[in-house]
Amino acid sequence: MKVQVGDKVRFLNETGGGIVARIDGNIVFVEDEDGFEVPAPICEIVIIEKVPEKNDSGNRDVIGKETSENKNELVSEKEIKQNELEDEGHDDFNPRIYLGFINIGKTLDENAKLELYLINDCNYYCIYLVSELCDNSYRYAYFQGIIQPNSKLLLNDFLVRKLDVNWEIQLLLFKKGKPYPALSPVSVPIKLKANRFLKSNSFLNNDFFYQPALLIPIIKNQLEQKMDLLSKSDLNNILIGKETKQKNKNSSKNYSNSGLLEIDLHIHELIDNWDNLSNVEILQIQMDKFYTVMDLNSGNRGRKIVFIHGVGNGTLRSEISKQLNKKYKGNYYQDASFKEYGYGATMVIIK
Questions:
Q1: How far apart are CA 33 and CA 21, in angstroms?
Q2: Fewer Cβ in 10 A, N or C end of the chain?
Q3: Pairwise CA distance, residues 114 & 197, whole Å
């Protein structure tokens, strides 16, 4: 049953209620008996008494008639604004969209409040729908709208204890007034557990916020897609094979027989003691090594460098790719030889 202004409601998980004063997207503002407006998500509202329906046929909406909620926008004309929003360093064939959570409180416990953002790190406009997957195969829509290229949008805030959720994210990407690669609509299930947000090392430094954030990729890159296809036993075989090969190699040599410059970014190859370092500090040390090697070889055209980053959770590999697309975007890179490195290395060719 649709909530409307004037309905008498109560809160689902808390005491109290009142009359719906206004509705802003998925947030309902309920005026209590003292005259104060209390905001609450629409999914946490229970209707007690509906506002009387108007019987005047002149006020009824007619199917097919344009209303304030229906809008047809002409996007075939070239839009200057889109050109201003585009980033030349982005690969239009591999767009990146994330959910981002940041902690807006001073503590991190089950009552901590997190802000949820949709992050559009690509040159496309993005129509989005975030819905909850219900037990009966139905869906409950939470957020919907459109986000501009290379921008982020605050969707809502949540208490950590309420983030045991099962969502589905649906995306449709397009450009205005110009051709673009044919991209299929995206529909991705996202299952979240509250305890994931209680680990401080889940929140990492990033390119989108001034503070650590937990980022969840909605559109995965080619490496992440390949990893999803691997079974657990396949992954273990790759890791075991890689570890055996590394033990047999002479770690003091940077050059292989083919003349490649190999840089092992595993933390145990960079420093002697890392037991007391956080994930953020380890990532910073690894990226500092990456920056140093890239800067030292910036003038060596044709130089091939293999950065061995391992598989892990993909954070280091993703950060390297991001910097190659931005800071070192003039160079070519690809996954290194699967036979030699599995899915754990990236090869860069200096241009």
A1: 12
A2: N
A3: 9
Give pLDDT tens digits for 24-41: 777 888 887 777 788 888
Q: Rounded to 5 degrees, what are φ and ψ at 34?
A: -95, 0
Global confidence as pTM:
0.51
Interior/surface letters 205-216, b for 16+ CB within 10 angstroms, e for the rest:
bbeebeebbbbe
∠ CA 45-112-139 to the nearest 5 degrees?
Answer: 40
Residues in the chain, overall count: 351
Check residue 75 and give left, alpha or beta (phi > 0: left; psi -120 to 50: alpha).
Answer: alpha
Tens digit of each residue's pLDDT (9 = 90 or more) over 165-189:
889 999 999 998 888 888 889 998 9
Cα distance between residue 266 and residue 244, in whole Å: 15
Order of strands across the sheet that contains 27-31: 37-41, 27-31, 17-24, 8-11, 45-49
Contact present, 122 and 150 (Cβ < 8 Å): yes
N- to C-terminal Cα distance for the chain? Answer: 60
Q: Report yes or no: 119 and 140 within 8 Å, Cβ to Cβ.
A: no
Please give the distance of CA 154 from its chain centroid, rounded to a whole number. Answer: 13
